[in-house]
Amino acid sequence: xxxxxxxxxDIENSRTILPxxxxxxxxxxxxxxLIEKLADDLEATIKAPRGxxxxxxxxxxxTCLQPLLDAQTPDGRIIPSSCYFIIxxxxxxxxxxxxxxxxxxxxxxxxxxxxxxxERMRIYQRDLVVFEEKEKVLKKELRRSVAKGEDSEEAERKxxxxxxxxxxxPREMQLVYTDTTSEAFIDGMSRxxxxxAIASGExxxxxxxxxxxxxxxxxxxxxxETLKKTRKTSGSSMVVGPRITISIDAQPDVFYALxxxxxxxxxxxxxxxxxFMAMPTSKVGSRYYMEMEHQEGHYxxxxxxxxxxxxxFLDVLSDEGSRRVKKLSEDAKKxxxxxxxxxxxxxxxxxxxxxxxxxxxxxxxxxxRLACLLDSFENGLDSYICVDxxxxxxxxxxxxxxxxLQIFKYTxxxxxxxxxxxxxxNKKRQEGMRYIRKNDVxxxxxxxxxxxxxxxxxxxxxxxxxxVCRYMANKTECVDVMPWLLVDHLMAMSLGGSGRIY
Length: 502
Hints:
alpha/beta
């Protein structure tokens, strides 16, 4: 009965197990670890919101560690350690400043890879010229032997030997992508490096780019599943065992515009549930500087650790079996089980995650991914994930969960339908339209509202709110979308002849 007692304890104490952190302001409980010390330094110097800084640091760590590590769940599943982050911050919050600082070791390594590629390509082109000349000679020899009816075995043996030494074209290794198409993204991963990041400190255009709209691809990449693109006119591209980190900072208006356009797909695809999201409190207007001692030691140590991981990058590409599986210590495993049970309980009506079940169902694994990265960065690649790392990951995970709940406040199905219809009506108002036949409304509104019954019920609720007024013009049912203005009887009735407002 021990197991039953543990589950009951997790349920009864779910709010204690899952502390809620709506802000990262104030003293940090885990200030002794390097990541938090670095965040302190960057917050003091760059003056960006801490939530933005932490997301960007963990994204960089994820980019460097994802080729080296997977995590093992308490039930034995192996999952990638990579994480997805989307941070919403207005212009002036120094998003680019944080990214350029935090991603500097990765950018420096990319320059080395580019230089190495240029040198290898030069050697390849030289070897290819030699190969092609040898091939011409052997082809002539083989052709002559065949034409004369002589034994061509020796010429064939030489040809086979030559093709054993066919020069291999070097891989062009791109670690970080911004604006790209799905085809180019998969093609780049299949030909070059399959451990990549999609990152931008000013990610408005990236967020609406072709690859970021390919939610099935991003969801598959999140799980480390095989990616494949089939083309009619050229060969297919396939990537086995990819690892993808996403780190995008965007302005809230850009994100909400995308949400208005593709919100249903974004949510139903499960992409947003896989992301850690936040809209940190702005620091604009309070970023005062004072004379202080500048601490570079933490940043130098951070760069040193990332550079060490990146040096192992090329080894992993040539040896798939070298990726480690990071396991939980016994105490950490018990903690993760309690976290999972508590999250499950809080999906019930009245719970923290009621109405956000899809997000909550992925939160436990997301916390484990964080714990894997935090422990590896602090304690090394070969250690077990300790309980302190799980606690730290829970602290961060619940902060991002709280932010997600604020960004996507739970609304009923009816409220969503009202907002969907009102969004369409607002566009018509901006176009100068006031009186619209109801049949025209039904034909032109989003597909989800085109059922007559659903549209009628939604219009009724908007009429109670004073957003619309329905009326009859002769035998034609019409809608006034600006009922607070004086009635223009001539215009209103022109849609169907004489009639009455009700």
